[in-house]
Specification:
The chain has 5 helices and 13 strands. By secondary structure, the protein is an alpha+beta fold. The chain has one domain: 3-Layer(aba) Sandwich (Glutaredoxin). The strands form 4 sheets. The protein has a 5-stranded mixed beta sheet with strand order 9-8-7-12-13. It is globular, with a radius of gyration of 16 Å. The termini are far apart.
């Protein structure tokens, strides 16, 4: 985190994200995770420098060269759980459809639910596509989260080394040094075919719509 005012912004943001959505709607079959009533975002923000997303109505500026639907995945290295680096283009699912879920921090309730949804409610997509979560959490924190959540069908990749993924894709929030919340679907040719960046950081992306789009790509092929 940054120092001074940026630290306070970050602390307030993470606290609010962690407390967002308290009403339980029950649990998914085979898991003890309790899903909350968290608003699903309508529409998408635009990635890249000069654009912003909202945190409880207040704008946060995005940094980097924005990605959009129709663009190719861009070369950038992220860290795996053993600290080794891998190009996001060349993950184990290269050549298959991939769903990339981007979250600010796994240690918040909204990000936690987004990741559980990706893992547990994809209705068999995990057998056909690679599910990826990217955050600025350290690889150690991601590994701990996955073990505690009993998630073993998601590839966790860390952008902790200078947020190069966030900057390369125009999804980096310089203050308070986190990623925007987003989900993208990438086809077999590494083309981004679906992208939603939540306009409000405390809201969830439409994971069901992303799943449906990924399934349509598989069916079309």
């Amino acid at each position: 985190m940054q120092t001074g005012n940026c630290w306070f912004i970050g602390a307030a943001l993470c606290l609010s994200l962690g407390l967002a959505g308290c009403g339980s709607t029950g649990s998914s079959a085979g898991t003890s995770f309790l899903y909350k009533n968290i608003t699903v975002a309508d529409g998408s923000a635009v990635a890249g420098e000069g654009n912003n997303i909202l945190f409880k109505g207040s704008p946060l500026m995005l940094s980097g060269n924005g990605i959009k639907i129709g663009d190719q995945l861009r070369d950038v290295k992220v860290a795996q759980d053993d600290l080794s680096l891998i190009n996001i283009v060349h993950t184990k699912g290269e050549g298959k459809v991939r769903i990339i879920s981007i979250v600010p921090s796994l240690d918040t309730k909204v990000c936690e639910q987004q990741t559980h949804h990706l893992s547990e409610r994809n209705r068999g997509l995990d057998k056909m596509v690679e599910l990826i979560t990217v955050s600025v959490d350290t690889p150690f924190a991601q590994k701990r989260f996955a073990e505690e959540a009993k998630i073993d069908n998601v590839t966790f990749l860390s952008d902790y080394r200078g947020a190069e993924f966030g900057k390369t894709y125009g999804l980096f929030l310089k203050d308070p040094h986190i990623l925007a919340r987003a989900v993208m679907v990438v086809d077999k040719q590494n083309t981004i075919r679906y992208l939603q960046i939540t306009p409000e950081l405390t809201q969830l992306p439409n994971m069901e719509e992303a799943f449906q789009f990924a399934r349509s790509l598989i069916t079309a092929s």
